[in-house]
Amino acid sequence: MIQVGDVWVHPEHKDEYVESLRQGVEVSAGTGGIPVPELRLASITSAAWGLSKKYWLPFLVLHCVVWLPLTFFEGWLETVMNTSGDEFRDLGRTLRIHNALDNIFGAVPTTAMLCLCSAVFHGRRLTVGGAVAESLSLWPRMFGLNFLIGLGTGLGLILLVIPGLIIWVRTNFASCHLIDGSTIWGSIEEGMAATKGHFWRISGYFIAMGVMLSLPQVGAFVLSAIVSPEGGFHWSIDSLTEFVFGLPLVFLIPFEYAFYMAVLNRRTE
After folding, report:
1. Distances (CA, A) of 251 to 139, 154, 163, 187, 237
2. In the chain, N or C: fewer CB atoms in 10 Å?
């Protein structure tokens, strides 16, 4: 990404942007009135909150349409498949199923939300329908990107743990680069370059925000274990509880894009 005036433009689209200016088509940044944040947790969180307020209903609908049935499907599948009595093995199977569903189906609403966030900062006018259309067109590349990152992170965690964490942090913004016009491999390279020198900041901010947003879900789980210590409620009730109290985690999507913009802004200073 390069900055032309107050607008961020991918190098591949620079000529198109310059041509639009010559034709008198004005493109301004921040159509939603949200400034590019500074590389501080408070500033990033404030920008993410602004994005969430602007698009709270589309974010909620996109998430619910895909993840509500998927959460129920996961809950039912756990009751059918996790019967070995080995909790560690069952947990591993559950995580693999969740990751597979996330990469195949969950990528659609996540990418659409990121497209809406991108449009705000880059001065593009984008409808929710347009964001979904862009998400579907990006799905093959996003799936390939997530597969490569997941493979690298998984192998790193299995071998020495630390390399897996490094890959996870250094490729954290690769999906944002992909949405803004990069290829799969270009997104990984640009993500690695953008996060260079920010390892502890990125890992610390994401972990802190993730833990805070997970507290309602953890609290609901603990309360369920206290109220029904013999094995919880019916899988459908457990699934609905997990979904409802997990809704705050959707905030991580605008937080990721705001963080990405803050990192890009720092690199140009």
Report:
1. 21, 25, 27, 23, 24
2. C
